[in-house]
Design a protein that fits this description.
It is a single chain. By secondary structure, this protein is α+β, with helices and mostly antiparallel strands. The longest helix is centred in the C-terminal third of the chain and has 45 residues. It folds into 2 domains: about 240 residues, no CATH class; about 50 residues. It is globular and about 80 Å long. Strands 1-2-3-6-7-8-11-10 form an 8-stranded antiparallel sheet.
């Protein structure tokens, strides 16, 4: 069970942070003369585009038929996307954090709903987004990319290329600028598992697709009615203040994680203190030998 989310605050923040990526520009303005122009369209294959980021209607990567078009409103799409979490390592502990930043949610909820409502059976929707996410020490830029379509059973499919992948403009070892024409940010495909370094943590109505008897780590299948019902139930519980046993366990688990994190920080401080003392002793020994 995912933690309780303050949806109203997420929506408000999403409106304020339309893309959630200060370093890559606001999607409704140009940051500098070197930035690509933002494109938003009600027609044509490009639904939204800003520099490296985009949402596009494309041909299926393999022959077949999708259940398109599918009418879905942006609010329902936001609830579905908001239900996706990933496991993130913070110091010595693992916790679940939202897959998409508020800015990513703002863009994807609108454009994916629009794309699915007008895509043809032989078309998919692909996306690349960049968002600012809380890190262990400071905020980090991360990228998500995927291929979206509705399968023969009416379920939402997302084949991820990248999941919460740390985004860099330059190579961390050489310092050289990364040429995205040579190293593009690619969505997933039906042919092969992209094997993302991070996996989505499954919740009600979510599963990984099996292909030839093996589970794909990049291919998420979402039963939209189940997810929306789960979201509505948790919203109702939050509004009424009713705490189910599951919610109480979630609160207790979060408290344990907070206590453990506090202990970890205390242990780190103690280790640093001991190291500083040892370094001081080593410094005195070196000075005595000179």
């Amino acid at each position: 069970m995912q933690g309780i989310v303050k949806y109203s605050s997420i929506i408000a923040l999403g409106m304020a942070m339309t893309v959630g990526l200060s370093a890559c520009g606001n999607p409704f303005s140009k940051k500098s003369d070197n930035d690509d122009e933002v494109v938003m369209s009600q027609t044509g294959p490009v639904l939204w585009e800003s520099s490296l980021q985009y949402v596009r209607v494309v041909e299926r990567d393999q022959p077949g038929t999708n259940q398109h078009p599918l009418p879905i409103n942006a609010d329902d799409m936001r609830d579905v996307l908001s239900s996706l979490y990933v496991n993130q390592r913070v110091l010595l502990r693992t916790q679940q954090v939202p897959l998409f930043s508020p800015g990513e949610l703002q863009i994807l909820s609108t454009t994916l709903a629009q794309g699915l409502s007008r895509a043809q059976p032989n078309e998919d929707i692909t996306f690349v987004t960049l968002g600012v996410h809380a890190g262990a020490i400071a905020a980090e830029r991360k990228t998500n990319s995927g291929r979206v379509f509705i399968d023969e059973n009416g379920r939402l499919n997302i084949i991820f290329g990248l999941v919460h992948e740390e985004y860099r403009d330059t190579d961390q070892y050489t310092g050289q600028r990364i040429d995205r024409r040579v190293n593009p940010l690619l969505p997933g495909n039906r042919r092969a598992d992209s094997q993302p370094s991070t996996r989505v943590a499954l919740d009600n109505g979510q599963s990984y697709r099996e292909v030839n008897g093996s589970e794909r780590s990049d291919w998420l299948v979402i039963d939209i009615p189940t997810v929306l019902a789960t979201v509505a139930e948790r919203k109702g519980q939050e509004m009424t203040g009713a705490l189910t046993p599951e919610m109480r366990e979630e609160i207790a688990r979060t408290k344990r994680q907070t206590d453990n994190l506090t202990d970890d920080v205390a242990n780190i401080k103690e280790i640093l203190f001991e190291m500083s003392d040892q370094l001081e002793q080593l410094k005195q020994q070196l000075e005595e030998r000179q």
